[in-house]
Automatic annotation (TrEMBL):
Name the record gives this protein: Solute:Na+ symporter, SSS family protein
Record flagged with keyword Cell membrane: yes
Record bears the keyword Electron transport: no
TM segment ranges: 6-26, 38-60, 72-95, 116-141, 147-168, 180-202, 214-238, 259-283, 303-331, 352-370, 376-398, 405-426, 432-450
């Protein structure tokens, strides 16, 4: 394992070094939270791919492939479709708004008083996403160092917190690019072909496995539909995803880079399912499908190369964890702390660093005591989509939507989701179905029976959608440089 240790040590040192470099770039709030809104298409598409393809898409994607065959790709395909829809329909408008959070967009569109409710829901979602991503570190460090779960969580979580606190979104972006490259090499260019060849190619896998492993719908139509409902819609409105959209230098870069990222996700999803299918052919009697990724890496790859692929899996987990952490910190400072009457900080970068550090430590602590992370993440996504999707998409696509309608839909959708979780269970599909349906009905009815949003608010909204915020920022910078 000496070669593997060397590769992992080099990777960890590189992440910390890149994070330290990001410290020099994060001089303003914009730098710290959205990388100064300066990313080009390559960095944008790379960091977007890194944040959405985490441990669930990598280790979890292989697990689904081991269990269901190629139809196990549907979870990651749903993520890729969500990215494609977001960037083809909404990314241009989001970039032009020049905001930092989903809550700020809602306040701008509806005239205020909405970000407090949306902020609480988004804060819970981003914190739980951070927790579940941090928990995944235990798998990799257990394989590498045979340490208990809490130690693996502490090691991986501390690395993510360190580089995130140092340079904020700049550090996260730079580390994401490195992680994107490692992930592409390790998973797509090494583990995928090695797994297929080791299993005897497609003919060899077909000879060893049931025909259902090569059916696209073997996982079940209900499951596929639920994946799209939760993950595709969740990616349309998640703060962790929007915050990456805000980093694009131009609306065109956001659209083009996002489409590239979406296509990459589709390829990555199929790769994970094929690796899992090959693992099933090679090791049909594993005690747990969760072990499929670690087993095929450990058994089929030589030292050093094995370390690179484990670093690729670690990259997937770290990119998602860091993206969720900076999103949770941004919601805390922009949407929640300001609503508590706290005065605007003199040094906003310092306040964001402290907030990121505190939330990171909280996430590590929770990850050490949480038992059922799948249910925890399901709760977070169900509440996010059921409570916020209608108000957000309605605000972007329907001018007749009102603040009262948005508030009512958020409250009703969230309450209905939570109620059906108690009635039918967390793993049931009914919470998200009833939550979304009731949220949409309330939004439409209340909006129709309340006064239209004032022309003054809609004028400001329209001006921002037309790019006025960017022009105003450039004018302010020019005036500052001339004074």
């Amino acid at each position: 394992m000496a070669g593997d240790y060397a590769v992992i040590a080099l990777y960890i040192a590189g992440m910390i070094g890149v994070g330290w470099f990001g410290l020099r770039l994060a001089k303003t709030k914009s730098d710290y939270l959205v990388a100064g809104r300066r990313l080009g298409w390559f960095m944008y598409s790379g960091t977007m791919s890194a944040v959405v393809l985490g441990g669930a898409s990598t280790v979890g994607g292989v697990k689904l492939g081991y269990t269901y065959g190629i139809s196990g790709a549907w979870l990651v395909i749903a993520i890729g479709v969500g990215i494609l829809v977001l960037h083809t329909l909404f990314a241009r408008r989001l970039v032009k708004l020049r905001v930092y959070t989903v809550g700020e967009m809602l306040d701008l569109r509806y005239g205020g008083s909405t970000s407090a409710i949306s902020g609480v829901v988004m804060w819970g979602y981003t914190l739980m996403l951070t927790v579940t991503s941090t928990l995944a570190f235990a798998t990799i460090f257990k394989v590498l160092f045979n340490v208990p779960s809490w130690a693996g969580i502490a090691i991986g979580g501390s690395i993510v917190v360190l580089y995130s606190v140092l340079g904020g979104m700049w550090s996260i972006t730079l580390t994401d690019i490195v992680q994107f490259v490692i992930k592409t090499i390790g998973i797509l260019l090494i583990l995928l072909p090695v797994s297929i060849v080791s299993a005897g190619g497609f003919d060899g896998m077909a000879a060893r496995l049931d025909e259902s492993y090569f059916e696209l719908t073997a996982i079940g139509g209900d499951t596929i539909f639920t994946y799209f409902l939760i993950y595709s819609f969740g990616l349309l409105i998640g703060q962790d995803i929007w915050q990456r959209v805000f980093t694009a230098r131009t609306p065109g870069i956001a659209t083009g880079g996002g489409v590239i990222s979406g296509v990459y996700c589709l390829v990555y999803g199929l790769a994970g399912a094929l690796i899992g299918t090959a693992a099933k052919a090679l090791y049909p009697n594993l005690a747990s499908a969760q072990d499929a990724f670690a087993t095929i890496v450990e058994q089929q790859l030589p030292a050093g190369i094995r370390g690179l692929v484990l670093a690729a899996a670690l990259s997937a987990m770290m990119s998602t964890a860091s993206g969720a952490l900076i999103a949770c910190s941004t919601v805390s400072t922009s949407d929640l702390l300001s609503k508590l009457g706290l005065k605007k900080a003199v040094n906003e970068v310092a306040r964001n660093r402290v907030t990121t550090l505190v939330l990171g430590l909280v996430a590590i602590g929770i990850a050490m005591i949480v038992d059922d992370v799948v249910n925890a993440l399901t709760i977070a996504y169900d509440i996010l989509v059921g409570g916020l999707l209608v108000a957000i998409i309605g605000g972007l696509a329907w001018k007749r939507g009102t603040r009262q309608g948005a508030l009512a839909s958020m409250v009703v959708g969230t309450v209905v989701v939570i109620t059906f979780m108690f009635v039918d269970g967390v793993e049931a599909n009914s919470p998200i179905y009833w939550g979304l349906g009731s949220s949409l009905a309330v939004y439409l009815v209340v909006s129709f029976f309340t006064p239209r949003t004032s022309d003054e608010i809609l004028t400001v909204w329209t001006r921002r959608l037309n790019g006025s915020a960017a022009a105003e920022e450039e004018e302010a910078k020019l005036a500052s440089s001339q004074s």
